[in-house]
Amino acid sequence: MRKPVITGPYREIAERLIAIRHFAGYSTGIDFAEAVDIAYKSWSHYERGLQQISLPNAKKLVQAYGLTLDFIYLGRSHTLPQNVAVGLLPKLELIKSSASSDMPEDVAASLSSTNRSRESL
After folding, report:
1. What is the pLDDT of residue 60?
2. Less crowded by CB within 10 Å, the N or C end of the chain?
């Protein structure tokens, strides 16, 4: 896994979106975008922090994964259902730590192994 490249003004939202993608079990943005019916070009801009996710697309994530708009836009993790928070917040911490430096091998392995275990469910 590569280090996330977040260069735009919506960095914090982008970090949450990347964590959501990993939580959902997808290692690539293109596969995730297709699965949630969001144009890949838009999703790519969201993940790089170049554009804020639109409300209709954010609602798709809310419906698909039990998230809240407060979490997506404002980072209010206390609004997440407990079962979602337990799986998602550790991934967000890994993303945040990797966004400021090269992603250590153990972090990349952790995200990848978690994705594989979710796929087997």
Report:
1. 98
2. C
